[in-house]
Amino acid sequence: MTDTTDQKRPSEKLGTHYHNCVYQLLKQAIADYLQWMKSVGYTRNTRKNYQAQLNQFLCFSKNTTISWQQLFTSNSLEYFKKITEQSSVPAINGLSRYLFCKGKIPKPFSNRPPPIDLPKIYEDYLSYQQTHRQATARQISIIKRVLVAFDQYLQSHKIDLGSLKIEQVDAFMAQFLAPFAAGSCRIYRCNLRGFLTYLYHERNIIKRNLAPFVVSRREYAQAKPPNFLRHQEIRKLFAGLTIGNVSDIRTYALVQLAYTMGLRHKEISQIRLNDISFSTQQLTLAERKGTNPIELPMPEHTVKAIAAYVIGARPQSEHRRVFLTLHPPFRPMRSGTVGYHITKAMRKVGLLSTAYWLRHTYAQNLLEAGASIFEIKEMLGHDKIESTKNYLRIHIQLMRKVLFDETF
User: Fold this and answer.
1) Cβ-contact 129, 194 below 8 angstroms
2) What are the structural domains of the chain?
3) Could you report the per-residue pLDDT of 66-75, keeping only the tens digit for each?
4) Which residue spans within 171-226 are E strands per DSSP?
5) Between the CA of residue 383 and those of 11, 100, 360, 378, what are the distances in Å?
6) Helix, strand, coil: what percent of the chain each, to 5?
7) Mind listing the pLDDT tens digit for each residue in 209-219?
């Protein structure tokens, strides 16, 4: 009688050998990828974090019977994320792109989830954010994440937008925000407030503006600070700016653009080299909020600050954007990064303000210089005069002299 166990052993050995080959192949691919990251300038900390996630992926391949072809598919990736309880896998996405470029796999993982169709009112709001609020693709993605969850909640509880109540909004937020950290919760609350405001003011879908009620406990007692810098605070800010290294030189140029020209963070991040005419001291902004292109005169100090950065601190790159990241691989700065570095310079000298205060201060300075509200509207790139009025709530020199004992 033939032993059936002996008959299976050759195929089992062949399967084990193939599986070991997949493991060794992936192990070598990870080593090559980490070495490539080092060669192109990724930081040590980033490489360390990537290696930890890639080691998990290597163990995953060892403990499963997935072939090399199946290993880099969306099904395998979702299975890996499920068993490791990870929502994002940047290291594995990066490895797949590396292997794709080397011709080792037919296609990389897609970083983009499949599109989700939302009801028209939600899509209209996303379009509104892009057109009127100049929201970036990343911001739209975050807003859509909240709207998808909100729509699913309303549908599951059979709640109509037109009859929406604050108790229902509170219940959704309590459920949706439960797994997130405090910083993420603040962002998601802000996104939902924006949508509720849109439903009330722009579309008249809800009978009461529920946005002011979407707050955390700590926000109830917060007083709104003034949104402009006084003259002594501006002097303090510029006195604290240095040009000791490339980061300082870049920050100095960012602050000059924000203060002397009132540019938004995104407008600063999108400036291209050919947008600046150093000979005529002109800046062309082709992409403004509300698609209002304009040519603006540049103060001499601002021109010199940008020239110093371009000549002495800007990395060599094929990118045409003026402001780039400090470390390779060099990329254009994001809007949020621009705001971060300006705010960091303010906090360095003890100012409890944010980068956007410089834009408000610019509007105040224009008003004090005798500009009409219509001229200020054009300089700020606003669609509506009402938006400009919000920047000018604070009275000018006379009130500032009375309140703050300032002299001019």
Assistant:
1) yes
2) 4-101 (no CATH), 120-219 (1.10.150.130), 231-404 (1.10.443.10)
3) 788 788 888 8
4) none
5) 71, 45, 16, 8
6) 60, 5, 35
7) 898 888 765 44
